[in-house]
Here is the input.
Amino acid sequence: MNVRRLIPATAVSAAVAAALVALSACSGSATADHKDGKLHVVASFYPLQYLTQEIGGDHVSVTNLTKPGVEPHDLELSPKQTVALSGEDAIIYLKGLQPAVDEAIKQSGVKHVADAAAMTTLEKHGTEVDGHHHTTGDNASHSQSEAGLDPHIWLDPVRYAQVARGVDRTLAAADPAHKADYRRNTDALVKKLDALDRQYADGLKDRTSDTFVTTHAAFGYLAERYGLTEEAISGIDPESEPSVSRMKDLHSLAAKHHVSTVFFETIANPDTARTLAGDLHVRTGVLDPLEGITDKSRGRDYLQVMQSNLTALQKALGAR
Here is the structure.
């Protein structure tokens, strides 16, 4: 666990509590008066924002706590931002991914709070999974999830669809008047995710290699779903430095498994990936963990970027 990331969340607790008391004294209530008639929902980072917007449609107003280009794991919230959460109607987050958000939710008092991690099953990647070794190098997890569980569930369309059903239940509980609309939107979204799952299964069926190399181990669930093997340079923590022994291992693995590409991502430093690719005399490519959408993203939304990821994997693995 990266202790440095826990400091901001812990340090603001007392200030937040004091601010909440002051707010209540001034207004008599910490709940905002939403005059637009919409359900106001906070999503902790992009994948949950996307689900909430797709399911909520015109009935919701969604705020993403993580700005484009910011690593979700590194998000820090000011006391003012944390106090603002108390005026929201619902919060959708993924427990353990962003310590500052976990701490802020404890202080918010919001009734409708949903943890995406509880809507599906999390696994510990870095061990053998169905015969495929998903390594996290020599580094610790960036999250506080118990036993170092991998939080990147949104990169598996099947698990992501399960989370969508959970978001539907949360919005319906917070806004029963539009329950039928939320269910209809969720059904439509799940069909799209089912189609995406089939695209990956069919598109990666005939390939010459099973192994791909990434900057950090974000794609364990995707690899497991489609029978691939992810080998990561820096483990689950995108900021950690790989050991010398890890780099040597990757040289051996790349030769053994005919690795043609070293993938980096749009919001993390690509230098190590480019250095490794140069040493191996292979190309580099982008495999986006979809933690945020920016101008550099290869697509405007979740589905488009996931389809770009599929094309990149097909090229790297020799899929026909």
Q: What stands out?
A: Confidence is low (pLDDT under 50) at residues 1-32, 127-147.
